[in-house]
Design brief:
CATH class: Alpha Beta
Organism: Galemys pyrenaicus (Iberian desman)
CATH superfamily: P-loop containing nucleotide triphosphate hydrolases
Number of helices: 9
Subunit structure: Heterotetramer of 2 NUBP1 and 2 NUBP2 chains. Interacts with KIFC1. Interacts with NUBP1.
CATH topology: Rossmann fold
Bound molecules: adenosine-5'-diphosphate
Family: Belongs to the Mrp/NBP35 ATP-binding proteins family. NUBP2/CFD1 subfamily.
CATH architecture: 3-Layer(aba) Sandwich
Pfam families: ParA
Radius of gyration: 18 Å
Structural class: alpha/beta
Binding site for [4Fe-4S] cluster: 196, 199
Shape: globular
């Protein structure tokens, strides 16, 4: 699908935040989704660019799987999540014929699509563009950096699970940020203990405090620990707005505090 040219589309993006992690499955898409929703509920205009081309999960998490993107004279129109059109999402998931289709592309084709996602999507003015990336450091990261750098300073938020193996990979991600010239706005520890819904006691399912220690050693801010929360998991499965619907759920305070600190 070729997009109409949309010169200068990303020029009105205020603040770009790349969400990074060393490992898959630690909650990068979850943090991207909930951060976007929390910023939206704080009155911000938010775009989400899903460059996890081989595992695009954000359309489902936001309940817009199967929607189509259209073209207008300014380029591709992203999918709007809310009626007021203040949360815009672009993902390869909208271009696949079947949600389970696999993207088996070499680097140059992935890079070209990411460039189009940045330059040929009619993002309009945005306060924040949240960029969900694949785990590690890949062609997708390099393409996103190259495409976005002319328009805005680039910030990074690194997500880790508390276990040592995940924290070790996150440390490599921080090294990548330094080499790539990204400002790290902080580290988030996700899946950090389980709060019992009956007695509210917190059980450390994995080891504890790895994210905070990593942030301290790297000299970057620690933005908070998000507990394992079955209600959050269900909301993501069902494409619901966790931030609006479940303010008394265990993960809510940490997620909204993170949004206030970015
Ligand atoms: P990644 O993007 O790093 O691969 P995801 O955000 O897709 O990871 O998360 C993996 C799975 O874990 C998802 O099914 C998600 O619903 C679940 N999950 C992530 N964070 C939490 C949390 N804090 N509480 C409960 N479930 C979570």
């Amino acid at each position: 699908m070729e997009a109409a040219a949309g010169p200068g589309n990303p020029a009105g993006i205020g603040h770009v935040i790349l969400i990074l992690s060393g490992k898959g499955g630690v909650g990068k898409s979850t943090i991207s989704t909930e951060l976007a929703l929390a910023l939206h509920h704080a009155g911000k205009k938010v775009g989400i660019l899903d460059v996890d081309l081989c595992g695009p999960s954000i359309p489902r998490m936001l309940g817009v799987q199967g929607r189509a993107v259209h073209q207008c004279s300014a380029g591709w129109v992203p999918v709007f999540v809310d009626r007021e059109q203040t949360v815009a999402l672009m993902s390869v998931g909208f271009l696949l014929e079947q949600p389970d289709d696999a993207v088996v592309w070499r680097g140059p084709k992935k890079s070209a699509l990411i460039k189009q996602f940045v330059c040929d999507v009619a993002w309009g003015p945005l306060d924040y563009l949240i960029v969900d990336t694949p785990p590690g450091t890949s062609d997708e990261h390099m393409a996103a950096l190259e495409a976005l750098r002319p328009y805005s300073p680039l910030d990074a938020l690194v997500v880790t699970a508390p276990q040592a193996v995940s924290v070790g990979d996150a440390r490599r991600e921080l090294t990548f940020c330094r080499k790539a010239g990204l400002r790290v706005i902080g580290v988030v520890e996700n899946m950090s203990g389980f709060v019992c819904p009956h007695c509210t006691e917190c059980t450390s399912v994995f080891s504890q405090g790895g994210g905070e220690e990593l942030a301290r050693l790297a000299g970057v801010p620690f933005l908070g620990s998000v507990p394992l929360d079955p209600q959050l998991a269900r909301s993501l499965e069902e494409g619901r707005d966790f931030i609006r619907e479940f303010p008394s759920s265990a993960a809510f305070p940490a997620l909204s505090a993170i949004a206030q600190r970015v």
